[in-house]
Amino acid sequence: MLYIDQDADVYTGKFSKNSSCKYNILRQLYMIVVSGEIKIGLNTAKTGDAMEVIDESEIIIEFIEDSEVIVNPKDICRKRYL
User: Which is an annotated Pfam family here (predicted)?
Assistant: First the structure.
């Protein structure tokens, strides 16, 4: 069980190796890599790592390996799978 004492949206997803996902961001994005490896821009994150993305309006998340992630977006307007 996870208890959060504020308004929060938390999502999880499983993605296949060599796939990607485009996010349009209004404020910020916080992501935890549960398993696998991802790349956002020049930054990579592996199992157990976390990333916070700020001051970006759009990002492309590349899934280097089969990956599972937890995402806590702050006002994401939409996501598209490439």
Answer: Pirin_C_2
Domain for residue 1, yes or no?
Answer: no
Q: How many structural domains compose the chain?
A: 1
10 and 2 in contact (C-beta within 8 Å)? yes
**31, 35, 52, 77 from 43: Cα distances, Å:** 13, 16, 11, 23
The model's pTM: 0.80
| Neighbour tally for 38: CB within 10 Å | 22
19-35 vs 50-54, strand pairing mode: antiparallel
Average pLDDT over residues 60-71: 95
CA distances from 35 to 27, 45, 55, 71 (A): 25, 10, 26, 13
